[in-house]
Amino acid sequence: MPSGLFCISEACAVLAGLWLTGTELDISALMGATMVIGMLTELSIFYLAELVPDAPLTADSLIEAGRARLRPILMSALIAILTLLPLALGTGRGSGLQRPLATAIIAGLTIGAPLILTLLPRLVLLMSNAQRRVTHGGTARTN
Q: What's the pTM?
């Protein structure tokens, strides 16, 4: 479920970025959207890899994982954004062809990296608590 939610939010971020910059949605922009989903999946894995596999999942463990992975996640996103900025601005020769790709990636990472650091831990904790209730016969009801 979190991956579907992130894919939808990234698609909205990419479309919003293209709309704000007046860039057309073409195959290059769609390739950029696909690349953004892959990059953010990798950043999510970096975050979740910090958790101890057999330890109980708590808010403190998620906060500690966020502290440990804050710099690598932000650096990865920032490096990609700064690298693609000349293409998105159209300053180089032939950059107009790759402008939609760069714009899509920049918009997706600008929205996606903060979501990984803020929304992903909350969703993981929410799903863990719901699974624990169902597994232990808690308050989960079916109507």
A: 0.83
Round to whole Å and give the CA distance between 111 and 128. Answer: 25
Total residue count of the chain as it appears in this document: 143
CB atoms within 10 A of CB 136: 8
For 136, the 3-state DSSP assignment is: coil
Give yes or no for a contact between 126 and 119, defined as CB atoms under 8 angstroms apart: no
- Report the pLDDT value the prediction gives residue 138, as an integer from 0 to 100: 59
Residue 16: partners with Cβ closer than 8 Å, 6 or more residues away: 107, 111
**What does the pLDDT look like over 70-86, one tens digit per residue?**
999 999 999 999 999 98
How many C-beta atoms surround the C-beta of residue 112 within 10 A? 25
